[in-house]
Specification:
By secondary structure, the chain is mainly alpha-helical. The chain has helices at residues 6-10, 33-55, 58-74, 86-105, 117-145, 149-160, 165-172, 176-196. Helix 4 packs antiparallel against helix 5 (117-145) and helix 7 (165-172) crosses helix 8 (176-196). The protein starts with 5 loop residues before the first helix and ends in a 5-residue tail after the last helix.
């Protein structure tokens, strides 16, 4: 497989291959180069921005982005679309690659002049925290997507937006008791979905 060209990230990746689905549709196969190229066209720009926010270095973010898709290709058999979306899986790879990138810099001879090991470890921890927050957001979004529409709406309005139950019930033209019931079953379904993805809610 040819390496993903860094220049493609540098100039921005916003286009899509003909016949390639959106993130919520059919998933490109990662077992061959065409599939990885398709996945890169769909998610490369997002992964690059994610890495850039964490590292603050465009060149390092390009390296992490390229390595993320190379790893995805090499370990394509580990991806299970029934567990998480391709986007979430790629973000997980990118998160670990970012942390590895920072820690690897600590053992480079010239790096000791720029940062002491504790500083590097602190940076890795900061990146881990930032990446975890973003990844958790994607995972919750993925879990919500699996709920029935009326359960998802009830949960989003009351728990995520913090709106009063009576206000939401009036807007949805249902009794407050019905809304509470929907929220209860939505939370139970969301926990089940998150458990399937190996995440505690």
């Amino acid at each position: 497989m040819n390496a993903v060209a860094p220049g493609a990230v540098r100039t921005g990746v916003t286009g899509r291959l003909d016949g390639v689905s959106d993130p919520d549709g059919a998933v490109p196969s990662l077992a061959d180069e065409d599939g990885v190229t398709a996945a890169y066209r769909l998610h490369g720009a997002e992964v690059y921005r994610f890495a850039l926010r964490g590292l603050g270095d465009p060149m390092a973010a390009q390296d992490v982005t390229q390595e993320t898709f190379v790893k995805a290709w090499r370990h394509s058999e580990r991806y299970d679309p029934e567990v998480a979306s391709l986007r979430v899986w790629l973000y997980g790879i990118a998160r670990n690659t970012m942390i590895d990138h920072v820690r690897a810099a600590a053992v480079r001879p010239w790096h000791s002049q720029l940062a002491e090991p504790p500083t590097v470890e602190a940076a890795a921890g900061s990146i881990s925290d930032q990446a975890d927050a973003v990844l958790d957001g994607w995972l919750v979004e993925e879990g919500l997507r699996r709920l029935a529409p009326h359960h998802r709406e009830a949960l989003v309005q009351t728990h995520l937006r913090g709106r009063p139950y009576d206000e939401v019930a009036t807007e949805m033209a249902i009794p407050v008791g019905t809304l509470r019931s929907r929220v209860f079953y939505a939370m139970r379904a969301l926990r089940a979905a998150m458990d399937e993805m190996g995440v505690s809610l």
